[in-house]
Amino acid sequence: MGYGMMPMLLAAEGEVDFSIHHLLGYEFMGTTVYLTTSHVCMLIIMATIMIFALVVRRKMMHAEEVPSGLQNVMEFVVEVLESFVSSAMGKHGKKYMYYVGTLFIFVLFSNISGLFGLRPPTADFGTTFCLALITWIMIQYNNVKYNKLGVITGLFQPLPFLFPINLIGEIATPISMSLRLFGNVMAGTVMLSLYYGLLPLAAKIGIPAFLHAYLDLFSGAIQAYVFAMLTMTFISDKIGDN
Protein backbone atom coordinates (compact mmCIF):
# COMPACT_ATOMS: atom_id res chain seq x y z
CA MET A 1 0.00 0.00 0.00
CA GLY A 2 1.15 3.61 0.32
CA TYR A 3 1.81 5.72 -2.73
CA GLY A 4 5.52 5.67 -3.21
CA MET A 5 8.63 7.18 -1.71
CA MET A 6 9.44 10.10 -3.99
CA PRO A 7 6.26 12.17 -3.61
CA MET A 8 6.48 11.80 0.13
CA LEU A 9 10.19 12.62 0.27
CA LEU A 10 9.38 15.86 -1.55
CA ALA A 11 6.63 16.78 0.92
CA ALA A 12 7.54 19.52 3.35
CA GLU A 13 7.95 18.60 6.97
CA GLY A 14 4.70 18.87 8.89
CA GLU A 15 2.63 18.67 5.70
CA VAL A 16 0.58 15.53 5.06
CA ASP A 17 -0.27 14.84 1.43
CA PHE A 18 -2.47 11.87 0.55
CA SER A 19 -1.80 12.51 -3.17
CA ILE A 20 -5.49 12.98 -4.03
CA HIS A 21 -5.56 15.84 -6.51
CA HIS A 22 -8.02 17.09 -9.13
CA LEU A 23 -6.16 17.29 -12.43
CA LEU A 24 -8.97 18.18 -14.82
CA GLY A 25 -12.64 19.03 -14.37
CA TYR A 26 -15.58 19.12 -16.78
CA GLU A 27 -19.31 19.61 -16.51
CA PHE A 28 -21.54 16.55 -16.82
CA MET A 29 -25.31 16.83 -16.33
CA GLY A 30 -24.92 19.85 -14.08
CA THR A 31 -22.17 18.30 -11.98
CA THR A 32 -18.43 18.91 -12.16
CA VAL A 33 -16.61 15.64 -12.75
CA TYR A 34 -12.89 15.52 -12.08
CA LEU A 35 -10.01 13.53 -13.50
CA THR A 36 -7.94 12.69 -10.42
CA THR A 37 -4.54 11.22 -9.67
CA SER A 38 -6.25 7.87 -9.00
CA HIS A 39 -7.63 7.77 -12.55
CA VAL A 40 -4.23 8.57 -14.04
CA CYS A 41 -2.50 5.93 -11.91
CA MET A 42 -5.12 3.37 -12.91
CA LEU A 43 -4.56 4.13 -16.60
CA ILE A 44 -0.81 3.75 -16.12
CA ILE A 45 -1.27 0.37 -14.43
CA MET A 46 -3.69 -0.85 -17.11
CA ALA A 47 -1.33 0.29 -19.88
CA THR A 48 1.59 -1.45 -18.16
CA ILE A 49 -0.33 -4.73 -17.89
CA MET A 50 -1.48 -4.57 -21.52
CA ILE A 51 1.99 -3.76 -22.86
CA PHE A 52 3.48 -6.60 -20.83
CA ALA A 53 0.75 -8.95 -22.11
CA LEU A 54 1.52 -7.99 -25.72
CA VAL A 55 5.23 -8.56 -25.19
CA VAL A 56 4.54 -11.99 -23.67
CA ARG A 57 2.13 -12.85 -26.50
CA ARG A 58 4.74 -11.96 -29.10
CA LYS A 59 7.31 -14.01 -27.24
CA MET A 60 5.01 -17.04 -27.04
CA MET A 61 4.11 -16.81 -30.74
CA HIS A 62 7.81 -17.20 -31.54
CA ALA A 63 8.41 -19.73 -28.81
CA GLU A 64 11.52 -21.85 -28.99
CA GLU A 65 11.46 -25.63 -28.80
CA VAL A 66 13.42 -25.42 -25.57
CA PRO A 67 11.73 -22.79 -23.37
CA SER A 68 13.96 -20.21 -21.73
CA GLY A 69 13.85 -16.84 -20.00
CA LEU A 70 10.50 -15.06 -20.08
CA GLN A 71 8.76 -18.04 -21.67
CA ASN A 72 9.74 -20.26 -18.75
CA VAL A 73 8.57 -17.69 -16.23
CA MET A 74 5.18 -17.15 -17.88
CA GLU A 75 4.53 -20.88 -18.31
CA PHE A 76 5.26 -21.31 -14.62
CA VAL A 77 2.90 -18.42 -13.72
CA VAL A 78 0.10 -19.92 -15.84
CA GLU A 79 0.57 -23.36 -14.26
CA VAL A 80 0.49 -21.89 -10.74
CA LEU A 81 -2.60 -19.85 -11.58
CA GLU A 82 -4.39 -22.86 -13.07
CA SER A 83 -3.56 -24.95 -10.01
CA PHE A 84 -4.66 -22.13 -7.68
CA VAL A 85 -8.06 -21.69 -9.34
CA SER A 86 -8.68 -25.41 -9.84
CA SER A 87 -7.95 -26.17 -6.20
CA ALA A 88 -10.59 -23.64 -5.13
CA MET A 89 -13.23 -24.23 -7.81
CA GLY A 90 -12.71 -27.84 -8.84
CA LYS A 91 -13.90 -28.81 -12.32
CA HIS A 92 -15.25 -25.31 -12.96
CA GLY A 93 -11.85 -23.72 -12.32
CA LYS A 94 -10.66 -23.70 -15.94
CA LYS A 95 -13.68 -21.66 -17.03
CA TYR A 96 -12.94 -18.91 -14.50
CA MET A 97 -9.15 -19.01 -14.57
CA TYR A 98 -8.79 -16.02 -16.90
CA TYR A 99 -11.23 -13.83 -14.98
CA VAL A 100 -9.72 -14.63 -11.59
CA GLY A 101 -6.21 -14.30 -13.00
CA THR A 102 -6.92 -10.89 -14.53
CA LEU A 103 -8.61 -9.72 -11.34
CA PHE A 104 -5.70 -10.89 -9.20
CA ILE A 105 -3.05 -9.30 -11.44
CA PHE A 106 -4.85 -5.95 -11.59
CA VAL A 107 -5.46 -5.80 -7.84
CA LEU A 108 -1.87 -6.89 -7.14
CA PHE A 109 -0.35 -4.29 -9.46
CA SER A 110 -2.65 -1.63 -8.01
CA ASN A 111 -1.76 -2.52 -4.43
CA ILE A 112 2.00 -2.49 -4.98
CA SER A 113 2.03 0.54 -7.30
CA GLY A 114 3.01 2.69 -4.33
CA LEU A 115 6.49 1.22 -4.63
CA PHE A 116 6.84 3.03 -7.95
CA GLY A 117 5.60 6.42 -6.83
CA LEU A 118 1.95 5.99 -7.81
CA ARG A 119 -1.16 6.34 -5.69
CA PRO A 120 -2.78 2.87 -5.46
CA PRO A 121 -6.14 2.96 -7.31
CA THR A 122 -7.43 0.46 -4.74
CA ALA A 123 -7.02 3.16 -2.08
CA ASP A 124 -10.22 4.64 -3.55
CA PHE A 125 -13.55 3.03 -2.70
CA GLY A 126 -14.86 3.75 -6.20
CA THR A 127 -12.29 1.34 -7.64
CA THR A 128 -12.74 -1.48 -5.16
CA PHE A 129 -16.54 -1.23 -5.26
CA CYS A 130 -16.60 -1.52 -9.06
CA LEU A 131 -14.35 -4.59 -8.89
CA ALA A 132 -16.55 -6.16 -6.21
CA LEU A 133 -19.71 -5.28 -8.16
CA ILE A 134 -18.42 -7.09 -11.27
CA THR A 135 -17.72 -10.14 -9.12
CA TRP A 136 -21.17 -9.88 -7.49
CA ILE A 137 -22.87 -9.83 -10.90
CA MET A 138 -20.95 -12.98 -11.82
CA ILE A 139 -21.97 -14.57 -8.51
CA GLN A 140 -25.65 -13.84 -9.13
CA TYR A 141 -25.40 -15.00 -12.74
CA ASN A 142 -24.17 -18.40 -11.57
CA ASN A 143 -26.79 -18.43 -8.84
CA VAL A 144 -29.58 -18.05 -11.41
CA LYS A 145 -27.92 -20.38 -13.91
CA TYR A 146 -27.43 -23.31 -11.56
CA ASN A 147 -30.12 -22.86 -8.92
CA LYS A 148 -33.08 -21.58 -10.96
CA LEU A 149 -35.97 -21.06 -8.49
CA GLY A 150 -33.57 -21.88 -5.66
CA VAL A 151 -32.43 -18.26 -5.95
CA ILE A 152 -35.73 -17.25 -4.33
CA THR A 153 -36.44 -20.25 -2.11
CA GLY A 154 -32.88 -20.17 -0.76
CA LEU A 155 -33.56 -16.79 0.81
CA PHE A 156 -36.16 -18.44 3.08
CA GLN A 157 -33.78 -21.16 4.30
CA PRO A 158 -33.41 -22.60 6.85
CA LEU A 159 -36.38 -20.68 8.31
CA PRO A 160 -38.81 -18.31 6.54
CA PHE A 161 -38.35 -15.45 9.02
CA LEU A 162 -34.65 -15.32 8.11
CA PHE A 163 -35.52 -13.90 4.68
CA PRO A 164 -34.53 -10.28 5.53
CA ILE A 165 -31.15 -11.40 6.90
CA ASN A 166 -30.44 -13.64 3.91
CA LEU A 167 -31.40 -10.86 1.49
CA ILE A 168 -29.18 -8.35 3.25
CA GLY A 169 -26.38 -10.92 3.18
CA GLU A 170 -26.65 -11.22 -0.61
CA ILE A 171 -26.74 -7.47 -1.16
CA ALA A 172 -23.91 -6.82 1.30
CA THR A 173 -21.42 -9.07 -0.52
CA PRO A 174 -19.98 -6.42 -2.88
CA ILE A 175 -19.96 -3.85 -0.07
CA SER A 176 -18.05 -6.09 2.33
CA MET A 177 -15.56 -7.22 -0.34
CA SER A 178 -14.87 -3.68 -1.52
CA LEU A 179 -14.57 -2.23 1.99
CA ARG A 180 -12.14 -4.96 3.06
CA LEU A 181 -9.77 -4.22 0.17
CA PHE A 182 -10.23 -0.44 0.33
CA GLY A 183 -9.78 -0.31 4.11
CA ASN A 184 -6.50 -2.21 4.10
CA VAL A 185 -4.95 -0.31 1.20
CA MET A 186 -6.15 3.07 2.44
CA ALA A 187 -4.85 2.35 5.93
CA GLY A 188 -1.37 1.78 4.55
CA THR A 189 -1.62 4.96 2.47
CA VAL A 190 -2.61 7.00 5.51
CA MET A 191 0.13 5.50 7.68
CA LEU A 192 2.85 6.24 5.16
CA SER A 193 1.47 9.70 4.45
CA LEU A 194 1.60 10.55 8.15
CA TYR A 195 5.10 9.12 8.44
CA TYR A 196 6.47 11.15 5.55
CA GLY A 197 4.51 14.29 6.35
CA LEU A 198 5.09 14.63 10.08
CA LEU A 199 8.61 13.30 10.73
CA PRO A 200 11.89 15.14 10.05
CA LEU A 201 13.86 14.50 6.86
CA ALA A 202 16.42 12.30 8.63
CA ALA A 203 13.70 9.81 9.52
CA LYS A 204 12.50 9.61 5.92
CA ILE A 205 15.66 7.96 4.59
CA GLY A 206 16.24 4.23 4.89
CA ILE A 207 13.71 3.37 7.59
CA PRO A 208 10.60 3.71 5.34
CA ALA A 209 11.93 0.90 3.12
CA PHE A 210 10.76 -1.60 5.74
CA LEU A 211 7.34 0.05 5.90
CA HIS A 212 6.99 -0.13 2.13
CA ALA A 213 8.11 -3.76 2.12
CA TYR A 214 5.24 -4.63 4.46
CA LEU A 215 2.49 -2.13 3.60
CA ASP A 216 3.06 -2.16 -0.16
CA LEU A 217 4.52 -5.52 -1.10
CA PHE A 218 3.55 -8.07 1.54
CA SER A 219 0.17 -6.71 2.61
CA GLY A 220 -0.69 -5.73 -0.98
CA ALA A 221 -0.05 -9.28 -2.20
CA ILE A 222 -2.08 -10.75 0.66
CA GLN A 223 -5.05 -8.49 -0.08
CA ALA A 224 -4.97 -9.40 -3.78
CA TYR A 225 -4.93 -13.09 -2.82
CA VAL A 226 -7.83 -12.64 -0.38
CA PHE A 227 -9.94 -10.76 -2.94
CA ALA A 228 -9.36 -13.45 -5.57
CA MET A 229 -10.04 -16.23 -3.07
CA LEU A 230 -13.31 -14.63 -1.92
CA THR A 231 -14.36 -14.30 -5.57
CA MET A 232 -13.78 -18.00 -6.21
CA THR A 233 -15.40 -19.04 -2.94
CA PHE A 234 -18.61 -17.06 -3.53
CA ILE A 235 -18.93 -18.27 -7.13
CA SER A 236 -18.27 -21.89 -6.14
CA ASP A 237 -20.86 -21.62 -3.38
CA LYS A 238 -23.53 -20.67 -5.93
CA ILE A 239 -22.50 -23.41 -8.36
CA GLY A 240 -22.65 -26.03 -5.63
CA ASP A 241 -22.37 -29.66 -6.78
CA ASN A 242 -23.49 -28.96 -10.35
Order of helices and strands: HEEHHHHHHH
Query: Which value, in Å, is the CA radius of gyration?
Result: 21 Å
Q: Write down how many β-strands occur, each being a DSSP E stretch of 2 or more residues.
A: 2
Q: Uncertain regions: pLDDT < 50 for 5+ in a row? A: 1-14
Span between N and C termini?
Answer: 39 Å
> Which strand order spans the largest sheet, edge to edge or round the barrel?
1-2
Name the average pLDDT: 81
Name the structural class.
mainly alpha
Q: What share of residues are in beta strands?
A: 5-15%
Number of helices: 8
Count of the domains: 1
Write out key terms for the chains shown.
242 residues, two-stranded antiparallel ribbon, 2 strands, mainly alpha, single chain
Question: Secondary-structure blueprint of this entry?
Answer:
Elements: H1 5-9, E1 22-28, E2 31-36, H2 37-61, H3 70-89, H4 93-112, H5 125-147, H6 150-153, H7 163-198, H8 208-239
Antiparallel strand pairs: 1-2
Structural account:
The protein is mainly alpha-helical and 242 residues long. The chain has one domain. The chain has eight helices and two strands. Strand 1 and strand 2 form a beta hairpin. The protein is globular. The two termini are 39 Å apart.
Can you give me a brief rundown of this structure?
The protein is built from 8 helices and 2 strands, in the order αββααααααα. It is mostly helical and 242 residues long. The two termini are 39 Å apart.
